[in-house]
Amino acid sequence: SVPIAKQLASIKALGKGSDLEKAFATAALVYNNSADPEGKLSKAETKNLLQTQFGGFIRGQENKPKYQEIISALDEELENKIDFEDFMILLVSLTLMSDLLQEIKNMKTTK
Asked: Could you list the residue ranges forming a coiled coil in this record (predicted)?
């Protein structure tokens, strides 16, 4: 498989893209590289992708009620597949409740 950095470099529109644009493009590429030909992930693939690619944000959340609620909702997905839109909503939800986000908010940057 082609490394994500190389895939990003091949997208001409991102040549001078912002950090945020590149971050979202990376999320889309990671998702697409794991998705089936219909552009969807199974529940098991979604959980695996979260554990392998989003571990810093979900670490320490496993026993918290909100995390359990999100994972339970994932388990209740009727069609057993997650599309990109649902995946991004899931990422945002997990980010908002993460301990890592609080650490990021507390980070002081210097110019």
From this structure: none
